[in-house]
Structure formats: structure tokens, C-alpha cells
Amino acid sequence: MLVSGTGSILQALMDACAAPSFGARIVAVGADREGTGGVARAAAAGIPTFVRRLADSPDRFAWDKALTADCAAFEPDLVILAGYLKLVGSDFLAGFGGRIVNTHPALLPSFPGIHSVRDALAHGVKVTGCSVILTDPGIDSGPILAQAAVAVRDDDDEDTLHERIKVAERTLVVDTVGRMVRDGWSVDGRKVRIGS
Ligand code: GRF
Questions:
Q1: Element at 125 (helix H, strand E)
Q2: Which domains, ranges and CATH numbers included, belong to the chain?
Q3: 42, 10 in Cβ contact below 8 A?
Q4: Which of 6, 61, 118, 128 is most buried by a 10 A CB count?
Q5: Residue 39's closest CA among 47, 83, 102?
Q6: 170 lines ligand 1 (CB under 6 A)
Q7: C-alpha 159 chain-centroid distance
Q8: Smallest CA separation from ligand 1 atom 2, residue
Q9: 169 lines ligand 1 (CB under 6 A)
């Protein structure tokens, strides 16, 4: 799993993985910056961690190559971007393409990008939510695995709305990843089917 923030989605998956019947194990947690809550949570649980900062590589290409090697060392079946704020590059996509899961706090294709909650509020939508997608080379543009809706309240600000979305997002990520690892999935163009 790759994180940039507090890691509450990571925590939800860690909790789910505690039950053997869930069918998955988190082999490592990586971050793009020092001091993330996500890495702290993983380290406290005895999960291997690493930090791969863009600033420590000569350019984006070298960084992406190094990140790919960091992850490949753990031989993951799935890579989960759980609040990871960097765009992965061509090496990473070549190494893990088709099995990189990303979660996004909006109902894609509406409001891609890192200010999706702010953008949805500014647009005045009455319903927003979260999307779990497969990562492709674009920004939040990959095939959609699952979505959940969240109603916008008149008095919401970016923080209150994002917190409510994250409640739905944690459940959606756990449910989706669990079904993927237990039942498999297939992709036909933009359409993804989990299970047979
Ligand atoms: C999630 O809403 C994710 O979609 C967004 O950042 C949030 C991560 O939250 N990109 P956390 O770090 O898992 O608490």
C-alpha cells in the first residue's frame, strides 16, 4: 500500500486483514514523504515500511524507477494507493499495470484531481461520494471498480464533507479489495467485473 497522509484507509484494511477469511495480507506500506500517519500505523503493527521521496531522485523518471523497485521487492499481487498524492509513472505502470487500485473522494469521472472535495462543493452538487478505480496513465481516469454516494449537506465545508466521504471510502475500499482478492476480476474496456 502507498500512502501520503493519515492512513485511515490503510488502518481499515489492516483491521480487515486481521481476519484470515478476508483473504489478504499487507506486505508493505510505502510513502512519498517522511512523517506520515500511515507509515507510523504500519510500523506500529510490524508491517515493513519505506519512504521514497521525489526530492531524493534526480528526476521523476528515476524516482518512478526506484519506487517500482521498492514495491517489487515485496512481490505484491495488488498495489493499493490509499490517499497517495503522487502520480505513478510508466515504469510503475509497466510493473504493476492492471493491478494498481486507487481510491478517490468523488464520483468519477466528476471532479478528478487532488481538490475533488473542494471542487464538488464549489460546483454545488447535492450528492458526491467516492470511487475505487484501477490506475491507468491518466489522472483518476482508470476503469471504475466500485462507487458509493454521499449526500452533501447545506452546512458542509471541505473538512466535514471529506470526513463523511472517508467513512464511506473506508468501507468501499475494504469491500472492493476483499472481493478482488477472493473472487478475482476481469476488465472489458472500461467495464470491470469482480467475481465471475
Ligand atoms: C482519501 O479521501 C483519499 O481518497 C484521498 O485522501 C484521503 C486519504 O485519507 N486522496 P487517509 O490518509 O487514508 O486518512
A1: none
A2: 1-97 (3.40.50.170), 102-131+147-196 (3.40.50.170)
A3: yes
A4: 128
A5: 47
A6: no
A7: 19
A8: 105
A9: yes
| Ligand 1 atom closest to the CA of 3, numbered from 1 | 12
Closest residue by Cα to atom 6, ligand 1, is 83
**What pTM was estimated for this model as a whole?**
0.96
Q: What is the pLDDT along the chain (196 residues), one digit of tens a residue?
A: 999 999 999 999 999 999 999 999 999 999 999 999 999 999 999 999 999 999 999 999 999 999 999 999 999 999 999 999 999 999 999 999 899 999 999 999 999 999 999 999 999 999 999 999 999 999 999 999 999 999 999 999 999 999 999 999 999 999 999 999 999 999 999 999 999 7
